[in-house]
Structures are given as C-alpha cells and as structure tokens.
Specification:
The protein is an alpha/beta fold. It has three domains: about 80 residues, Arc Repressor Mutant, subunit A, CATH 1.10.10; about 120 residues, Alpha-Beta Complex (Aspartate Aminotransferase, domain 1), CATH 3.90.1150; about 240 residues, Type I PLP-dependent aspartate aminotransferase-like (Major domain) (Aspartate Aminotransferase, domain 2). The chain is built from 17 helices and 17 strands. The model has no long low-confidence stretch (mean pLDDT about 90).
Length: about 500
C-alpha cells in the first residue's frame, strides 16, 4: 500500500472494522483507484502486524458490499463500478415529485385510524405514585421459585426450543387450568375445551373474527372495559350500552332491545370493570335464561375473580350454564405478572374446532417454556398459595385506601366496588373537572385515571379508578391525604 493505514488496538471498534473503514475510504476518495490490484490477505496481514483472519474478515465484507472483486489466478482488485457510484447515479425523486398514489387501507385499517387511544398513566419515574389499575405487586412474586421451575426445563429438556404441535396450547397446562378453574370457579369443562391465548385481548379478537360481521349488535356494560369496547368497534359492531348498578348488569334492560338481534353480551360479573359491582346470583340466572331464549352468546370475562374480600365468591356464569351460551375468558396477568402473556378461553365443545383453526392461523402457539413452568406452578399448589398470600396483602391495602378516603374526604368521596379486585372506583364530590383533578394530582407526583372514557353514554360525574395493588399502605395513606388537601 502506498498510503498509511492506522489501526488502534485500544479502540472499542474491532480491528477488522477499523481496517474496513480505512480501505473503504481509500477507495471512495481515489487513493485506491478502480481496477487497481490490492495486496493479498497474507501480505497485508504481515505488513500491518495483525492476523490474517482479521484481514480476511475485512476483505469478505468489502467483497460482499461490491467494493472489491477477486479474479481467479490474478488476485484481488478494486471494483470498476462502485456501489456508492450506483447510488449517486440513481435519481431519487424529491418529495414534490412523488407520484405514488396513497396507500388504501381496509375498512379495519381505516377504523383503527379513527379509534381512540386507551388512556395511559405516565411512567413511575415521572409520577412516583400511580393509581393505575391492573398492576399486581411485583415485589411479592416468588421469583426464586419461578426461576427454579424455569431451570427445571431449561437444563434438562430442549423441547421448549421447538415448534408446538398442539393448536390448543400445551396439553398439560390445559389440564392444569381445567382442574384449577373447576376447583376455584366451579367452571364445568374438560381440557379439550380450553384454548391457551396470550391474554384477554387475543381471546376477544378471536371471538370477534368468528362471530361478528359489520353492524352486528354487541351489548356491553356501561361503564365497561374500554379495551374490549375498542376491539368491538374496530370490527364494525354496533354497541348497545346496558346500565350497571350495585348488583351488576341490569339484565332486564336487555329485554327492551329484543328487536336489536343481539349477537353477544360482554360482562365482567366477578368484579365489574370499572365499578367493582358483583353480578348477583339471581341476575346471573336471569342472564343465562335470556341468552338461552334469544340464542345470544355471553362473553364472561372473569376479571379479578381471585380477589374477593368477605363473602364467598359466586360461581362463574359458565358453571351455571346448561345451554352452551357462555364463552369464558381468564388470565394470569393479575395473579402472577402481566408480561407472562398467558390466558385461556373455555369454549362449548362444538366451537373448539373453528377457534383452534383461527388461533393456529393467527398465532400458531405461545412460547412452550412458560407454559411448562406455569403447568407445574399450578399442579404443585404454588398458584393457590400465592393467591391466598396476595389476597391478604391486597386486603390490607384495600382497607388502608378505604380508610384514608373516609378519613380525609369524608362525604366528599363515594366508594364503589370495594369488596373485590385490586381497584376501587371513587366518585369525588368537588367543583373541579376530571382534567383539573388529574392536573392538580400530577403536580403532587400522583397519577390518576378518570373513569369517563369507560362510559358509552354521556357521563359527567367525577369518577376515578384507584388501583392499589402495587402501592404500599403508607403510600396510599399519604397520597390520599395529599389529594384531600388540594381537592376539598
């Protein structure tokens, strides 16, 4: 070489990458002219005092990118047509010259553009105290136990690296779930009726694909779960809001819409979201009777069913059903951790086949390792022990929150749904709007979530969702005290 090549052994950049940059720049600046022969890898390695492997790696990269070429029996040469020249010779139209027609979206794609975003609370680094809902207490999770169960399969079996062959999900897990929900929720099912999904949202999406055409009617609680509502709306369904009171969905209101041809009814009977109401047993039976008579299907999202304080839990709708009217959804996001992404859908036997095919086409399977670990976690009794432990933890936090609201707000706060789940809904009797309340709270480092987006019908009451699962009793007491000082 008739020019200097400088390599720095102390640089964080590998030697082969440094050499590549030096040679590439030499070619582009004309120090190495097109068609010129360059030294062999052995010659250049000896000249620079580096390994031949390093030079070979550099040459391979230059060769693959079109900067050099090899001629058998002659050597290695700089290419006469360089890739950078090609780029410069290819005209790139300016934004004003683009003539491509706009991309046409499907009706589904168009609906997504118009769909409102799910409200989010900012991260805890910005807002130290977040009353966001659905977040369990991560510091209480048995990490060591979970790690040990992971090691059991990681170290002894490589099956989890392969594709899953069961379209319904890992069979031992489906068996474990079937036994668990039969014990805890009185769900009547066999493992063959259980499909493993990656959460409630995927279960709802599958249901929509199989049952709903544009303009079909879906009845849902009002207020109700916003994420479910958005899925229904993007599928083009017409939503029919049904009032919720202290006993849950007002079933008799469904009869007022007998001409609407309701295809589906979406309910959260164990802990209505967001009010926290529990659907009473008489209304459960009334709803099942209505579904049997009309042919409609019930989507039972058994939200927060594990956490009930005081009274015994009422059996799931599915366990009371004798006419195959219920599609039952459960998840482990609240009882374990959200990133696990394992939920389940329990179906009437006659619907398993089309759901299995739809699931296979859209998702094929979930990671096998987590399914194996969760199956053992359930079968060895760890899940139910963890739930018992967390029920006691959350009960203390619930009591601390309720007590703080009563002490600091008194009659200026009405508490709803405090007997179950890991959140309560609170109506604040203040002169401020929801937006003003959230802004004032944010100045104190407190994140709040209004319940307003969860209503279908216009609603003006100042109602807020107070999630307490991840907050300590001290945090709950101090934050409610601070809120009272700026809102009362």
């Amino acid at each position: 070489m008739d020019f200097a090549i400088t390599l720095d052994s102390n640089s964080s950049l590998p030697l082969h990458q440094q050499l590549y940059e030096e040679l590439r720049q030499a070619i582009l600046t004309g120090r190495l002219l097109p068609g010129r022969r360059i030294p062999s890898t052995r010659q250049l390695a000896k000249c620079l005092g580096i390994s031949r492997t390093t030079v070979t790696q550099t040459y391979d990269q230059l060769l693959s990118e079109g900067y050099i070429e090899t001629i058998v029996g002659s050597g290695t040469f700089v290419c006469t047509q360089l890739p950078d020249d090609l780029l410069r010779s290819t005209p790139i139209p300016s934004p004003g010259k683009i003539t491509r027609p706009p991309v046409k979206l499907s009706k589904y794609g168009e609906s997504l553009i118009k769909t409102e975003d799910v409200p989010r609370v900012v991260k805890s680094e910005i807002i130290p105290i977040n009353f966001r809902y659905g977040r369990p207490a991560f510091d209480q999770f048995p990490i060591r136990l979970w790690r040990r169960l992971l090691s059991r399969y990681c170290c002894s079996d490589l099956q989890w690296l392969d594709y899953s062959t069961d379209t319904l999900g890992y069979k031992p897990l489906r068996e474990s779930i079937s036994r668990y929900i039969s014990r805890s929720r009185a769900v009547n099912c066999e493992p063959e009726q259980v499909i493993i999904v990656n959460g409630t949202q995927q279960a709802l999406d599958l249901i929509m694909r199989l049952f709903i055409e544009p303009d079909d009617v879906i009845a849902m609680e009002d207020p109700g779960y916003l994420s479910a509502r958005l899925i229904f709306q993007t599928q083009g369904a017409k939503l029919l809001p049904i009032t919720v009171d202290e006993s849950g969905l007002v079933v008799k209101d469904l009869a007022y819409h007998s001409n609407s041809q309701i295809r589906l009814v979406y309910v959260t009977p164990s802990h209505q979201f967001p009010t926290g109401a529990i659907l009473s047993l008489p209304r459960r039976l009334e709803l099942l009777t209505w579904a049997r008579q009309t042919g409609a299907l019930i989507i039972e999202d058994d939200y927060d069913s594990e956490y009930r304080y005081g009274d015994k839990p009422i059996p799931a709708l599915q366990g009371l059903d004798h006419s195959d009217s219920v599609l039952y959804i459960g998840t482990f996001s609240k009882v374990l951790f959200p990133s696990l992404r394992i939920g389940y859908l329990v179906l009437p036997k006659g619907l398993v086949s089309p759901f299995a095919r739809a699931k296979w086409l859209s998702d094929r399977h979930l990671p096998l390792l987590e399914q194996q670990v969760l199956a053992d976690f359930i079968d060895e009794g760890h899940l139910e022990r963890h739930i018992r432990k967390m029920r006691a933890v959350y009960d203390k936090r619930r009591q601390a929150l309720v007590k703080a609201l009563k002490v600091h707000f008194g009659e200026k706060a009405t508490i709803l749904g405090e007997q179950a789940g890991i959140h309560v809904m609170v109506q604040l009797h203040t002169p401020f709007s929801d937006e003003e309340i959230m802004q004032r709270a944010a100045l104190l480092g407190i994140g709040m979530m209004s319940a307003a987006p969860h209503y279908l019908k216009p609603h003006s009451q100042s109602e807020f969702i107070f999630g307490y699962g991840e907050l300590t009793e001290q945090q709950l007491e101090e934050s409610i005290c601070s809120l009272a000082q700026i809102l009362t």
